[in-house]
UniProtKB/TrEMBL annotation:
The protein's name: Flavin monoamine oxidase family protein
SUPFAM superfamilies according to UniProt: FAD-linked reductases, C-terminal domain (SSF54373), FAD/NAD(P)-binding domain (SSF51905)
Pfam family, one: Amino_oxidase
Homology family: Belongs to the flavin monoamine oxidase family.
Length: 350
């Protein structure tokens, strides 16, 4: 009989792991707490415009991601940076016009980053993907792992967790307990995007390009800290998208929006106010991204890639994966792919 594998999390790592193990003699089920796949990859459709509110950019050093896009025949294109850009060093002075030198380009996926996870999901015809389902307990007392969710009980041979490590050790009860060293490190592990605020404004016209402006903004004063042209590849949808200062979480959505619009008007003029849609995602308020009980300051990428996450537990029945576990590029899409490929290869070698 096929061995049963339960994968916790339907983000890039979880879906790709399932794909790498497909048709290899396993009965695979993916449990996802959100009501959608993708995890920290999340593309919104705003009219004709695809707006990435999570993972977006990659570059030439991300070889595994480029190879995966080629494997699934997914197109990508260079992030537009042509034209004048703006830099705000001080709040009391106007934004400075700067020219950004041509360095290693960044790229975006045609149709939005969610194209990648959707394409993988479409290949998983025989894999059960359960949404809006949370894992509450995993019992490794006997030969089988007993996975208890809010909806069912599953007997599995292997369990692969791809969710943030801090969430795993805080939200899931393990019988017997996980090693204390693993718990301590996991609780103090930074989850990529956990403090990010992503904002996007959709427009009917690409007004900045008409003026010879790139749409790129860097600011020391905020509320927007970075902003980029986020128009579609085929230029049938137009947007500006970037990051707001994490301190903006203290304000209401209406207050944040007012402050952001004031900054955009100051930089671009009144045309920036003629938007059709405003979107924001506060990742610290996503309960399946940030561990709300995490105590103290965790610096960016803290404990990402720690070797303890690449050990196997409970006599090779529990495997930890996800981008924060990767030996290279932890916290990025590249890391998510490296982690998925690694854990799949480990299981296939048993």
């Amino acid at each position: 009989m096929n061995k049963k594998i339960v994968i916790i999390g339907a983000g890039l790592s979880g879906l790709l792991t399932a794909y790498r193990l497909l048709n290899k003699g396993f009965d695979i089920e993916i449990i996802e707490a959100r009501n959608r796949i993708g995890g920290r990859i999340h593309t919104l459709q705003s009219g004709e415009t695809n707006v990435d509110m999570g993972a977006t950019w990659f570059n030439e050093i991300h070889k595994n991601l480029s190879a995966l896009l080629g494997e699934f025949q997914i197109e990508f294109f260079e992030q537009s940076m042509k034209g004048s850009s703006f830099f705000e060093p001080f709040s009391a002075t106007p934004a400075q016009v700067i020219e950004i030198p041509e360095n290693s380009p960044s790229y975006r996926i045609v149709g939005g980053t969610s194209q990648l996870v959707e394409q993988i999901k479409n290949r998983l015809k025989t894999v059960k993907i359960s949404l809006s389902e949370t894992v509450r307990e995993i019992d490794f007392t006997n030969d089988k792992a007993i996975v208890v969710t809010n909806k069912q009980i599953i007997n599995a041979n292997f369990v692969i967790s791809t969710i943030p490590q801090s969430l795993l050790v805080s939200k899931v009860k393990f019988i017997p307990n996980l090693p204390q060293e693993l718990i301590n490190i996991a609780k103090n592990t930074h989850t990529w995007m956990q403090d990010s605020i992503k904002i996007a404004l959709v427009y009917k016209i690409q007004f900045w390009k008409v003026k010879g402006i790139s749409g790129t903004v860097f600011s020391n004063v905020g509320p927007i800290t970075e902003l980029y042209d986020h128009s579609n590849y085929n230029l049938n949808g137009f947007a500006l998208c970037g990051f707001a200062n994490g301190e903006m979480v203290r304000y209401s959505k209406a207050e944040r929006k007012t402050k952001i619009l004031l900054q955009l008007e100051k930089i671009f003029g009144k045309e920036a106010l003629d938007y059709s849609d405003y979107h924001e995602t506060i990742w610290s308020e996503e309960e399946y991204t940030k561990n709300a009980s995490q105590e103290g300051f965790v610096f960016p990428h803290q404990n990402n890639g720690h070797p303890i996450f690449r050990e196997n537990y409970y006599n090779d029945r529990l495997f930890l994966s996800g981008t924060e576990t990767a030996s290279e590029f932890p916290g990025y899409m590249e890391g998510a792919i490296i982690a998925a490929n690694h854990v799949a290869s480990v299981i296939l070698n048993f």
